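Re: weekly structure request thread

Next one in the queue (322 aa):
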Amino acid sequence: MVGSEPSTAATATTGAQIPQIPGVTVPAVPDVFTPAPMTSQLITEPMSARVGYSTTPQFEDEHHSPARTAEKSRFWKNFVNQSMFLVEGLAVVGLLFLGYQMITAQSKLQAETASAQALADQQRNATMPTLAPTPQIQLNAVVLPGGHILKDNGDVQFNINEIPASLRGLVADQIEIPISARPPATIETAVQISIPQINVRHQIVAGVDWEALKLGVGMLMNGVNPGSKQGNLVLSGHNDIYGEVFRDLDKLKVGDQFTVRTQTQEFTYSVTSFKIVEPTDVSVMDARSGATMTLISCYPYKVDNKRYVVFAQRVGPAGGAA
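Done, posted below.
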């Protein structure tokens, strides 16, 4: 029967009799899960032995994903790098500042040391007595100008033997003075001498040293000019070398007149006397009474072991009286 099969199934499944209603088919009851019977045995395994269990307290933020862990690592690395860079920068600035302080301190110390030394020198000099400078011996105070040696082959040199041996080292630097070192002529300086009796008309050079007499007639730099009211104007020239400008000086006679010009005036002199002297007789260049002149040349001709000296008195400007 159709109605009897479900009934059987239902009965078999539930174990209970389902009432049958005539003309009604009862649907089959689905299988129902029947749990396994519980065992009475207790679980004795400890919790700590179970997989994944830890006795250490765990927090939620301790378990991160790998991406978050890498990001955190990069953050700390950047932080440490920037901190080290800042520390290094501060260290460099500190070293520079320390170097600047050292240089400043050294400069200050040097300045203070120099100042102290200067003050000490000043105090020491203030306590030292002032010594008068030793006057330099002048060549014209030792020997008359014009001395020279003329050799057989024509060579010429200054006669150093006329100077005392003890004084040669003191006046050696005055024997030859560069022309550029001489003072320039002024309107009062003698610039030309004219002696018609012996055909002399020559320029006058400042100085009576060896270099000056190479150029012609030299003038002793004693501060005397042709227009001076007092003083002895001294002129010197060679007699057998460098133009022989005073070759015939010994031919002048007492009363002969000659002239000396400046840039603005001409003055007349008259011969008063003459004299032959030793090379060291420098007294002939001393000042005499009034405005005078002394002419000096080596003597005798090409022997030159003496000096021929002519003395003259100024008689005034040309054509006038003194």
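The chain is about 25% helix and 20% strand. Residues 1-15 have pLDDT under 50 and may be disordered.
Next request, please.
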